[in-house]
């Protein structure tokens, strides 16, 4: 056989082998053999090396390689796989497989594997956890599409969970996957449905193939093959050659092994029975016992395999084991058994997790029943935690983690180990509803392991205050916080598990307490305790100072205990048998010690005592309070203080707090205070801040009761309170609220459950977003000292609340809100409010406040004390209200504050102090609050008296007896408040002046003010327009503020303007951009594929002022470029600048010209015919004159008599105006043709006419589509722009040589009156008649001929319309009447038909033709009306100042046209000439683009209502260049609808020698350099202009909360907001995109520049 010749290269399989080979025969030979494996192996040994001699080819190579690959593929199928299929099926494979599939009763799992970028859906109400997702098909057929769902795009891998009952709390099946009677019971064995002999064959062939594949993929020798696969004869070969042959054979077999695995994956899709057989084969234990099954061998060798191999076998596992519910369990156990080993392999591996077998954990552990089983049977929780801890070996002497000295490598490894926490989260994510003893035991065992982990974190990364000099190196803090952040949800979940079972909870509490005691063993208890005494109480404590000793912010063991303590407080045990609680092991002072230190650290950092410790500490403090961490950090520290305080004498608690805050001495002796006042100012300030912080802490310890278990509240009360306090700052968008609330492990905040009860939703307008506003009835719950407020939040909220109260005519006191009652375990906390030490502190502060300028107290300090007093009074009032008699009210604060103060606070009682402060002039701000307090005191006294005598009557603090006194008081206060307000406003005004130059930072604000400006100016425009023609025009220069009259010979005045190419009106986007050098712009094609648009902001300057300004801009730009690189928002080199007044992007100026009445001294031609004749003669004369001139060579031209009259020789303008005329001409020339300026080019004036015509056309279209009247609705700036543009155009001939002007005229005239001497005249179907009209009129300076020209062009347009109008005929019974118009139209049409032969279809309906003509010609008439209005400065007819019907007559009469336009055509002669042009017939027969009239306005493409439709569309979009690869950033052109592969090297192209991305390249073909795109995966609109400029713009898709989701981070369903889309469209149609880009870039100059051209 061929093997003998296989020296050197193994030859590839020859054609004859294909022909002679029979898969069927081979299969039967195998079946007959005694040892099947031996036979199959022998077959493979022969064929595999020969077929796959090349080995795996690396990606798509040359064509040759691709062909080779295809050949290999075919050979594999025919020679290798087909025999196996025959063997398995016993019949022709195609038929056999079809049969299998038909008989298969599939399980209801969908199992669709996701592509990269494909949308996935999860239900926020029904998904068991956020990893449960549906594919789009299943989602659309499920109940969840009506629920609150979340949409994301898949990162690839993972599959659809439709049909998995455990993944969904509700609705697990979509319509397609709902189990029917037909589908099999999940318990039933699918193998039983297969024929017995096939089952037997299946077992044998599957085990042979799978073993073969596993052997080879895990094979690690190059020189040898597994037994049975060796080449048949090897004896003759010499060693080195043999090695090489062996090596390539090994590669070939490995290559086939992968194909074999894919084959297995495909085969089992046909039959669940075969799938189960494969599962059994894969998990069958091998001879070596444990971990010896084929699947085990694959998994254990995972990290040794190359990426491609891993992908293929992972895919097979997903298709087989994970799709079979029975074997999924068995596999899960194997996976858990090998867990530690697999993870260790992964940590050492260098591929991403998506290529690791460990990534399958998400598929297994998120199934609650599996997770629970693995926990009980394989002790999974403990395993995961232990594995994790084992991998973090870097510890300090006490065995704690040491992150602050991490090296890069350790940090990398830490990054990989973190995925284990993810696994732990999967296991814990659904809490059990039922517990078995086994589960309890294993969970507690896991908890032990977890406590070990927390113990390693307790006290890690400690800090010591730096005094003297600043720290040298910032310690690394992020790793520790990353760990904390990752564990936050785990810790919360563990608490949730504990709360589900009382026994578990108590045991967990005990264990946690034990762990904490262990941690405390390190505290210095040998030292002598110090004794503190104050206000008649004394206590002993440690000698410890935060400002001198080590302190750590990481206290997870304490915090877990705090969490468990709260849970205990919620149980039955706590309320009925508190003695059974295991509380006693640690003394309360020890419990509070560490959390208190941490809180004091924060206070000291706040007071500026830790400045020298750098940013690291500041960041840590920030995260300690941040919403991502605070639940298991700050919040729990407060709870621990609450727990400790509730178990202690309140006086003792407060003394310890004072001592830890290092403030004890200040309140224990009056002298110290005095001494400090004279001492160092810094120290005084520090102490003041510390006192404020301490008072705040006391407020929080007593007042924070919204955690279920501390206070008697429900969990949603907590969320509601958070929302109330966020909205008290200001109205907020949904996403802002979500960000401010902590998420649980399911990424839920609970916001939606309560938001509608507390807030009302305000829909967004065309900009901005929807906002929630707090309903007024919730204002009373506002607490100024809400524990989650930052200082900034607090002051903003205070301001907002005071303002609100003023608006409602209320006083400005912000008393504490009523609080929910405490749970029994925390009940004694209220006693803090009335304890002697606190009264002493309150007394002291009030005493200090008596002195206005003591410097030893602060307003915030006083405010906090007043708040505490208020809290105490409210508590007393509540107790009184709830009690039946006076006896059981233990709280008697009102009584205590009347007692005179004890030493050291010398004078008066607290009450007396308050009364004396009430009228202190320096405490005006607090007056309302003090008044409120005093009123409360009176009320409570009255209540006490009444309750003691009769019954309880509630008196709210609002209604007192001294109503009148109060009113007087109120009036006085109001006056003062008013004065204060005025003063504030003045200051605010000054501030805003200063902030004005920051306005650019707020784009939206700027936009808004612009719109306002526009509205106001357009109103005045109305007045100005009337009678403008008569008035002398006086204008003011915005730069020098001088007034100037616009005169032909005066100083030139100019308007800032922006000229750009435009394709907005284009009816043909496939036309290529013209070649700048050879393009002839004289005739515009009616497809308007490329126009020049001019816009202006309407701001006027002296030409000289502008020139000076522009030079300054240039200079500044040069200097700036030297300093720092990067783009400005405008391109100075291209003449761009920002209008000095409104910063509108501009690139040229239009000169303002006076209205010059045209000389009207030519002969009055009686009719069109006559005039044509004369003109023809004149032209003939000119022709000959020109000829003579060129013959004579520079001699004086002989101007024919007839033309001389029409010639105005002298230039009517001053030199400065002429210069500006040239400037603007050059700009339109430069931009329009994209060439360098060249004044000699004869095309220069043509472009000026062209931009005039195009700008008018585009404005006419816009007014039409917006249904606005033709006159009176344009904003002033557009009005000014059109007027000066038209006047400029009519004067631009002065800047061109006479001969050029004549030549253009000949050519234009020849288009309508054919002239044999003029060449290259386009046919009338290829001319835009309005452009022609404008060129004609502007060139021909004499009014009397204007009418003739208008008539001529109009008739041409009518013919043009008729020629293109009728392709399909709509029959309507309207033609019976037959008006004059209709008849004439029919006549004209028939004449045209006769002359053109059969090209035009027959039309019988005159009515329809006329309708067509009328509609078709209307835009032309409107544009012409606008044009003549600006040209002649005539007043517009009243009928055109309103929109609506009646336009036609008004237009015709304004233009002096008969309203029956057909009357115009009298000379059939010319019309025939037009038709004779060969271009007409050619175009009509399909030889060119036929543009029909009226040209429909271009709109942006239609977008689907549901954003996911777009995502889905984009996910199946492949890069057009790299053969079927997925595009990373699919981007949709909003103008033409093309999908592009953006931001990727594959689709970069070269434009003018520069590499640009697909978007930029597309703009050059689609939008003449300007483009609008939707980046589908980012949900972002992209504007691009030219190669360097671009910006992102909010997309027109909003979620239900009126917000966009740029970057698709939140995943709320998005729907099209058509108003916003129309806004973008309007921006585009008004040529405003470049302007928006300019502003965006101006505002974001500081940001990192984006390379727009590469998008
Ligand atoms: Zn699906
Ligand atoms: Zn489904
Ligand atoms: Zn649902
Ligand atoms: Zn000026
Ligand atoms: Zn301006
Ligand atoms: Zn496009
Ligand atoms: Zn591409």
From TrEMBL:
It is an enzyme of class 2 (transferase). Pathway: Protein modification; protein ubiquitination. It comes from the Eukaryota. It catalyses: S-ubiquitinyl-[E2 ubiquitin-conjugating enzyme]-L-cysteine + [acceptor protein]-L-lysine = [E2 ubiquitin-conjugating enzyme]-L-cysteine + N(6)-ubiquitinyl-[acceptor protein]-L-lysine. A zinc finger (UBR-type) spans 108-179. Keywords: Acetylation, Metal-binding, Phosphoprotein, Transferase, Ubl conjugation pathway, Zinc, Zinc-finger. GO terms for cellular component: cytoplasm; ubiquitin ligase complex. The keyword Phosphoprotein applies. Pfam families: PRT6_C (PF18995), WHD_UBR1 (PF22960), zf-UBR (PF02207). Gene3D superfamilies: 2.10.110.30, E3 ubiquitin-protein ligase. InterPro entries: E3_ELL-like, E3_ligase_UBR-like_C, UBR-box_UBR2, UBR1-like, UBR1-like_WH, WH_DNA-bd_sf, Znf_UBR. This is E3 ubiquitin-protein ligase. It comes from Lates calcarifer. The gene is UBR2.
């Amino acid at each position: 056989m061929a093997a003998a010749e296989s020296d050197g290269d193994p030859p590839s399989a020859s054609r004859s082998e294909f022909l002679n080979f029979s898969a069927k025969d081979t299969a039967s030979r195998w079946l007959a053999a005694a040892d099947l494996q031996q036979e199959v192996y022998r077959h493979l040994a022969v064929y595999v090396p020969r077929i796959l001699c090349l080995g795996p080819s690396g990606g798509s190579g040359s064509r040759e390689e691709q062909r080779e690959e295809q050949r290999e593929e075919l050979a594999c199928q025919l020679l290798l796989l087909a025999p196996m299929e025959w063997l398995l099926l016993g019949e022709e494979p195609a038929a056999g497989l079809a049969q299998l599939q038909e008989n298969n009763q599939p399980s209801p799992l969908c199992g669709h594997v996701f592509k990269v970028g494909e949308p996935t859906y999860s239900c926020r109400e029904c998904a068991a956890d956020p990893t449960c997702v549906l594919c789009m098909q299943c989602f659309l057929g499920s109940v969840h599409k009506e629920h609150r769902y979340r949409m994301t795009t898949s990162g690839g891998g993972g599959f659809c969970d439709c049909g998995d009952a455990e993944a969904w709390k509700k609705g697990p099946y979509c319509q397609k996957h709902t189990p029917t009677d037909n589908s099999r019971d999940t318990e039933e064995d699918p193998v039983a449905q297969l024929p017995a002999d096939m089952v037997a064959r299946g077992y044998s062939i599957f085990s042979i193939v799978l073993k073969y594949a596993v052997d080879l993929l895990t094979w690690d020798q190059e020189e040898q093959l597994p037994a049975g696969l060796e080449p048949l004869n090897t004896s003759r070969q010499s060693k080195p050659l043999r090695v090489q042959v062996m090596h390539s054979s090994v590669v070939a077999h490995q290559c086939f092994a992968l194909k074999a695995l894919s084959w297995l994956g495909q085969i089992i899709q046909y039959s669940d029975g075969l799938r189960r057989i494969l599962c059994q084969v894969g998990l069958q234990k091998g001879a070596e016992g444990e971990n010896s099954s084929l699947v085990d061998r694959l998994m254990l060798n995972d990290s040794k395999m190359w990426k491609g191999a891993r992908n293929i076998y992972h895919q097979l596992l997903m298709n087989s084991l994970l799709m079979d519910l029975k074997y999924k369990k068995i596999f899960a156990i194997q996976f858990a058994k090998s867990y530690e080993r697999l993870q260790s392999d992964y940590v050492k591996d260098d591929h991403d997790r998506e290529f690791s077998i460990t990534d399958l954990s998400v598929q297994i552990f998120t199934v609650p029943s599996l997770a629970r089983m693995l926990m009980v049977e394989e002790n999974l929780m403990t395993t995961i935690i232990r594995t994790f801890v084992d991998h973090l070996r870097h510890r300090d002497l006490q065995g704690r983690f040491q992150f602050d000295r991490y090296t890069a490598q350790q940090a990398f490894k830490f990054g990989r180990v973190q995925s284990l926490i993810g696994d732990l989260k999967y296991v814990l994510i659904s809490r059990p509803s039922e517990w078995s003893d086994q589960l309890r035991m294993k969970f507690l065992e896991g908890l032990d392991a977890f406590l070990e982990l927390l113990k390693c974190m307790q006290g890690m990364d400690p800090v010591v205050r730096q005094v003297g000099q600043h720290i040298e190196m910032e310690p690394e803090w992020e790793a520790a916080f990353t760990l904390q952040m990752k564990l936050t949800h785990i810790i919360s979940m563990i608490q949730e598990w504990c709360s589900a079972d009382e026994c578990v909870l108590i045991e967990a509490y005990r264990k946690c307490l034990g762990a904490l005691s262990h941690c405390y063993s390190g505290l210095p208890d040998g030292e002598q305790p110090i004794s503190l005494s104050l206000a008649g109480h004394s206590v002993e404590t440690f000698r410890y100072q935060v400002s001198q000793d080590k302190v750590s912010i990481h206290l997870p063991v304490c915090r877990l205990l705090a969490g468990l303590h709260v849970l205990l407080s919620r149980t039955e045990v706590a309320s009925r048998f508190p003695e059974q609680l295991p509380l006693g092991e640690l003394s309360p002072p020890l419990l509070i010690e560490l959390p208190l230190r941490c809180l004091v650290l924060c206070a000291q950092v706040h007071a500026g005592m830790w400045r020298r410790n750098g940013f690291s500490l500041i960041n840590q403090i920030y995260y300690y309070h941040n919403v991502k961490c605070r639940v298991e950090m700050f919040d729990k520290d407060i709870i621990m203080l609450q727990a400790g305080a509730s178990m202690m004498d309140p006086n003792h608690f407060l003394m310890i707090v004072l001592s830890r805050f290092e403030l004890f001495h200040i309140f224990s002796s009056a002298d110290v205070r005095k001494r400090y006042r004279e001492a160092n100012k810094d120290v005084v300030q520090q102490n003041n801040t510390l006192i404020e912080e301490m008072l705040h802490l006391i407020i929080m310890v007593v007042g924070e009761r919204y955690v279920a278990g501390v206070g008697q509240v429900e969990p949603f009360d907590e969320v509601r309170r958070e929302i109330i306090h966020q909205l008290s700052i200001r109205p907020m968008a949904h996403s802002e609220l979500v960000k401010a609330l902590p998420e649980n492990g399911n990424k839920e905040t609970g916001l939606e459950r309560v938001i509608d009860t507390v807030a009302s939703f305000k829909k967004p307008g065309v900009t901005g977003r929807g906002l929630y506003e707090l309903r007024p009835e919730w204002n009373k719950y506002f607490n100024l000292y809400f524990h989650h407020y930052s200082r900034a939040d607090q002051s903003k909220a205070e301001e907002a609340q005071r303002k609100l109260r003023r608006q409602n005519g209320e006083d400005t006191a912000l008393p504490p809100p009523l609080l929910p009652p405490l749970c029994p375990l925390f009940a004694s906390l209220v006693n803090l409010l009335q304890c002697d030490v606190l009264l002493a502190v309150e007394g002291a502060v009030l005493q200090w406040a008596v002195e206005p300028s003591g410097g030893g107290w602060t307003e915030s300090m006083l405010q906090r004390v007043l708040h505490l007093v208020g809290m105490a009074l409210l508590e007393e009032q509540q107790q009184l209200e709830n009690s039946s008699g006076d006896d059981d009210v233990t709280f008697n604060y009102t009584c205590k504050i009347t007692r005179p103060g004890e030493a050291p606070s010398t004078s008066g009682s607290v009450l007396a102090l308050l009364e004396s402060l009430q009228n202190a002039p320096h405490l005006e701000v607090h007056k309302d609050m003090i008044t409120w307090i005093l009123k409360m005191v009176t009320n409570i006294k009255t209540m006490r008296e009444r309750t003691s005598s009769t019954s309880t009557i509630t008196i709210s603090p609002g209604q007192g007896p001294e109503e009148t006194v109060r009113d007087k008081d109120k009036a006085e206060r109001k006056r003062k408040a008013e004065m204060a307000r005025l003063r504030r406003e003045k200051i605010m005004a000054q501030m805003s002046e200063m902030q004005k130059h920051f306005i650019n930072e707020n784009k939206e604000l700027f936009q808004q003010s612009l719109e306002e400006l526009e509205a106001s100016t357009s109103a005045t425009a109305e007045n100005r327009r009337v009678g403008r023609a008569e008035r002398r025009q006086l204008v003011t220069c915005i730069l020098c503020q001088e007034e100037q009259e616009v005169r032909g010979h005066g100083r030139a005045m100019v308007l800032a303007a922006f000229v750009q190419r435009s394709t907005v009106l284009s009816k043909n986007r496939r036309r290529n951009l013209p070649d700048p050098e050879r393009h002839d712009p004289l005739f515009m094609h009616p497809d308007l594929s490329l126009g020049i648009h001019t816009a202006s902001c309407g701001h006027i300057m002296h030409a000289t002022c502008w020139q000076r300004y522009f030079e300054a801009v240039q200079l500044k730009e040069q200097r700036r470029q030297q300093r720092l690189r990067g783009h400005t928002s405008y391109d100075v080199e291209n003449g761009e600048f920002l209008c000095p007044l409104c910063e509108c992007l501009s690139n040229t100026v239009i000169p303002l010209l006076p209205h010059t009445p045209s000389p009207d001294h030519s002969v009055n031609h009686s009719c069109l015919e006559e005039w044509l004749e004369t003109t023809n003669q004149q032209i003939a004369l000119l022709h000959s004159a020109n000829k003579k001139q060129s013959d004579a060579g520079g001699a004086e031209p002989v101007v024919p008599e007839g033309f001389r009259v029409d010639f105005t020789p002298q230039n009517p303008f001053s030199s400065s105006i002429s210069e500006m005329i040239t400037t603007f001409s050059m700009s339109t020339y430069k931009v329009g043709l994209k060439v360098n300026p060249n004044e000699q080019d004869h095309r220069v004036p043509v472009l000026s006419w062209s931009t005039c015509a195009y700008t008018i056309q585009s404005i006419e279209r816009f007014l039409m589509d917006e249904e606005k009247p033709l006159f009176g609705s344009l904003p002033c700036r557009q009005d000014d722009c059109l007027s000066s543009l038209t006047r400029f155009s009519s004067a631009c001939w002065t800047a061109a040589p006479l001969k050029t002007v004549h030549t253009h005229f000949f050519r234009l005239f020849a288009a309508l009156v054919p002239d044999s001497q003029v060449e290259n005249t386009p046919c009338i179907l290829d001319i835009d008649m309005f452009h022609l009209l404008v060129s004609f009129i502007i060139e021909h300076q004499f009014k009397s001929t204007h009418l003739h020209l208008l008539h001529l062009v109009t008739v041409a347009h009518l013919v043009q319309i008729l020629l293109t109008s009728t392709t399909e005929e709509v029959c309507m019974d309207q033609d019976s009447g037959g008006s004059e118009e209709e008849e004439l139209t029919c006549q004209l049409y028939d004449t045209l038909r006769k002359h053109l032969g059969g090209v035009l279809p027959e039309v019988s309906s005159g009515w329809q033709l006329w309708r067509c003509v009328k509609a078709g010609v209307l835009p032309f008439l409107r544009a012409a009306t606008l044009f003549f209005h600006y040209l002649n400065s005539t007043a517009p007819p009243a009928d055109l100042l309103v929109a609506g019907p009646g336009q036609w007559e008004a237009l015709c009469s304004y233009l002096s046209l008969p309203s029956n336009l057909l009357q115009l055509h009298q000379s059939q002669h010319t019309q025939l000439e037009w038709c004779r042009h060969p271009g007409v017939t050619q175009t009509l027969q399909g030889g060119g683009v036929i543009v029909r009239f009226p040209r429909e306005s271009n709109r942006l493409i239609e977008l689907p209502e549901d954003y996911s439709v777009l995502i889905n569309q984009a996910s199946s979009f492949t890069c057009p260049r790299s053969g079927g690869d997925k595009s990373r950033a699919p981007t949709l052109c909003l103008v033409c609808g093309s999908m592009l592969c953006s931001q990727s090297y594959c689709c970069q192209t070269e434009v003018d020698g520069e590499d640009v991305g697909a978007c930029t390249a597309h703009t050059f073909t689609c939008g003449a350099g300007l483009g609008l795109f939707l980046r589908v995966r980012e949900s972002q609109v992209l504007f691009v202009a030219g190669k360097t400029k671009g910006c992102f713009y909010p997309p027109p898709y909003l979620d239900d909360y009126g917000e966009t989701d740029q970057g698709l981070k939140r995943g709320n369903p998005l729907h099209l907001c058509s108003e916003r889309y129309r806004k973008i469209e309007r921006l585009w149609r008004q040529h405003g995109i470049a302007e928006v880009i300019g502003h965006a870039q101006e505002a974001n100059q500081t940001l990192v520049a984006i390379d727009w051209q590469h998008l």
